[in-house]
Design goal:
6-stranded mixed β-sheet, Nuclear Transport Factor 2, Chain: A, 5-stranded antiparallel β-sheet, Archaeosine Trna-guanine Transglycosylase, Chain: A, domain 4, 2 domains
Length: 196
């Protein structure tokens, strides 16, 4: 049991989940991880992991003993019944952006906006340095620093990059869904990892 919820892990085929993922993530996974083992751990929500061949053997032994792995391999993200239906991990987004050289569905934020974001704040219009399509109101958007590292995730409050131009400096353009500062603040039991 994790956090009072029973968790069941099972291996699944990549094809079982690609339809639930944004196109840029599903296309990348089909190219890079077509033969990888996908581990789905289901409880109150579903966490998805990508396992190497070697790690798959270890996880098989853990599950055979009646135990549940807390985490294993590369964390792909969380599938949910509500909106957003998929919350990608910042690790998989960073890998995709680095390996493809293409940043999509993201806001690049200046340092003065990144600092409040890392403390749980939202992204304001004045801190956005650049915007990368596609953006849809209510969708998950990556929040990057000017160093092009993914520092967290937000829920877009705008429908497309063009909408930034009509917004005031202090308008919220993405609400904080998750930021890496959570790991430092993580001792506060009241703060959930994802604010969705």
């Amino acid at each position: 049991m994790l956090n009072g919820a029973k968790v069941r892990c099972r291996k699944i085929a990549l094809q079982e989940i690609v339809g639930s993922l944004p196109p840029h993530i599903s296309e990348y996974l089909k190219r890079k991880y077509a033969e990888a083992t996908i581990l789905s751990c289901e409880g109150r929500f579903t966490e998805i992991f990508i396992l190497s061949e070697e790690l798959t053997k270890v996880v098989d032994k853990i599950i055979a003993q009646g135990l549940t792995p807390y985490s294993a391999g590369l964390y792909l993200g969380r599938l949910r019944k509500g909106k957003p239906s998929f919350i990608p991990s910042i690790n998989i987004l960073q890998e995709i952006y680095q390996e493809t050289g293409e940043v999509v569905n993201a806001l690049v934020v200046a340092e003065e906006g990144l600092k409040p974001f890392l403390y749980g704040g939202d992204v304001l219009r004045k801190s956005v340095v650049s915007c990368h399509q596609p953006l849809k109101k209510g969708d998950v958007v990556a929040v990057l620093g000017t160093d092009m590292r993914v520092y967290g995730l937000g829920i877009s409050k705008i429908d497309g990059c063009e909408e930034l131009e009509s917004r005031e400096d202090l308008d919220e353009v993405a609400s904080n869904l998750f930021d890496v500062g959570w790991y430092i603040r993580g001792e506060a039991r009241k703060e959930r990892k994802y604010k969705a």
